[in-house]
Amino acid sequence: MKKITVDLKSAAPAALLALDELKAYLLRIDPEVSFRFGLGGLSLEVSPSLFAERGIALADPDLDDAVCIEVSDGKGRIAGSNPRALLIAVYRFLRENGVRFLRPGADGEIVPRRDVFSLKADLLHAASYRHRGVCIEGSVSFEDVEETVKWLPKLGFNAYFVQFLTPFNFFQRYYGHEWFTAQQQPERLTKTIIEAHIANIAAAANQRGIVWHAVGHGWTCEPLGIPGLGWYRDDTQYPAGVTEKFALVNGKRELWGGVALNTSLCYSNPEVRALMTDAVAQYAAAHREIDVIHFWLADGSNNNCECEGCRQKLPSDFYVEMLNEIDRKLTERGLSTRVVFLVYVDLLWRPAVEKLANPDRFILMFAPISRSYAQPLAAGIGRGETTPYIRNKLVFPKNAGDSVAYLKSWQEVAPTCDSFLFDYHFMWDYIKEPGGYHHARVLFEDMKHLDALGLNGTVSCQNQRVFFPTGLGMRCMADALWDKTLVFEDVCDQYYRDAFGDFHTDIAAYLCRLSETYPADAVRHDAPLDATAAPRFEAAAELCRAILPTLDGFIRTAEDPCIRRNLSVVRMHAVITERNCLLYLRYVTGAEEAAQQAAFDALHAAVCEYAEEMHAAFDPVLYLETVHSNTLGRKR
Question: How far apart are CA 75 and CA 116, in angstroms?
Fold first, then answer.
């Protein structure tokens, strides 16, 4: 029996988990190993001073993750700047020795068999960016989210964001079986069920030291007694005492499009501001486990109040007034909770008068939802401009230059604020480029160059199951956030080797060619989605058909179960993408609606056939919704 002596120098939950995880994975690597506690062997440490001694300056060791790994012959040190960083360091040590965490869940891991005393690593590194997180979106089960939270630190992520006061929408879409009601009986969740599961998920995050973000939208309706559970239509006839607080738009005070989350309020009304800021302070006091509360306004746009009082200031001026009031109320309660404010749609236009009184309380979050993903944001630095604010007649930036110009404008009035990017690469865009190669490149470059934008990381607003056809994009995001000196081609090559072993060259070539062939520019509406795209849809469909025999052969001969599963996902993706191409082909050539519907039904049937088998890799609800809205659901 091989014995490893271990010493743990921290009692923090994440440090204890780091020890447990190290022992569990080492046993899988070498079943002959055993462990005993003592000195002189392998030491696990939380030591901020160590990094200062090694010349690594950390602005805040509690927030900024750094790792030191010096291990050989079963001895040495694994250290982190904080308990979460120690856990990340353990996973990094494992990755340095061949363990691969390709997607959440045990079947997404590759753990090689090796002599435990052959494992070694020598690494000293501070994460390039402070904020490295993921935000809940899409259609998810409770287990999906918990597995995601557990997986994040394995790739070096350190934050998770659960939207809304109760994240009903994302779970209900899954358990309600949207797009699959003919195949499965819909279930109906309750707030109680969701909140109980969220408590368990939050406990898993806390055990890992993950920075827990919460809320966002909802403050414009929940304090009025109106549920903000999702983007649901609400036809309730609310009393005058409530509707008088709604924004006056086109002469009416009513829910915007019937959706509470999208409805702006009358922010010049002091009672409205007090209701909202009191609600934030009360929520923070009741939920001290939350590290970061997001205070956002409505999710609609061009729907701000047109009353005489509101016309006296920009929406962002009223917003900063409320932020300062939140800071005052949290300070009175002795709460250190940080608050995120949102630079998004109408709030892209910076305040003209108001300033943050205590910038240290706040984190600026730049959310360029109208941007194009044809090029990285940093490519637009110095090449764009803002436009004057015209109430409820705003045109939002699409190109990188104009998008960045609005960020830079805000940074001029909040120059010392901590900040991060909140972007949507994995909401819709990854579905619009099935090969995923160019999508991953833009994502990688966006993360790599965040410092050029004056941002200190990202929280990705995304579907959780985004490993369709591969997890290349998630690897690129994680690696570039962790080490901005990396090169895309190197990360890409290593990922394909990890995920597909001996078959990596063929898989990489096929997916790269699919990205080049499929007219993603047209599907993104960066080019006309019309008959000129038809030859490329035809060519992409043929490419998907042609690869199937090759994939079948690879699947038969693959020995590692994770690699075999990855190959199977690529095969199912090829079948679905061929039907996707045929649907778009009928759409762009102006086929009869019945023919388009038949093509969509064929696509839907393939998705239904494979959805359960690809559960961990693929969000079928968001896929079908995105494709349908861009074809049958789109007005010409």
Answer: 11
Q: What is the pLDDT of residues 124-171, one digit of tens each?
A: 999 999 999 999 999 999 999 999 999 999 999 999 999 999 999 999
End-to-end Cα spacing for the chain: 71
Could you tell me the pTM of the whole model?
Answer: 0.98
Structure tokens at 409: 């404008």
Helix (H) or strand (E) holding 336: none
Task: Give burial (CB, 10 Å; 0-12/13-18/19+) of 635.
Answer: exposed
Question: What is the CB neighbour count within 10 angstroms for residue 16?
Answer: 17
Which tens digit of pLDDT belongs to each residue from 485-538? 999 999 999 999 999 999 999 999 999 999 999 999 999 999 999 999 999 999
Q: How far apart are CA 432 and CA 559, in angstroms?
A: 32
Residues 68 and 58 sit within 8 Å (Cβ to Cβ): no
- How far apart are the C-alpha atoms of 526 and 146, rounded to whole Å? 36
Q: How confident is the model at residue 635 (pLDDT cuts 50, 70, 90)?
A: low
Q: Is the pLDDT of residue 421 over 60?
A: yes
Query: What is the dihedral sign for C-alpha 598, 599, 605, 607?
Result: negative
DSSP state of 291: S
From residue 520, alpha-carbon distances to 9, 64, 436, 516 in Å are: 52, 37, 10, 9
How far is Cα 149 from Cα 129, in angstroms, rounded to an integer?
19
Distance CA 220, CA 225 (A): 10
Give the CB-side neighbour count of residue 269, counting CA atoms within 13 A.
Answer: 19
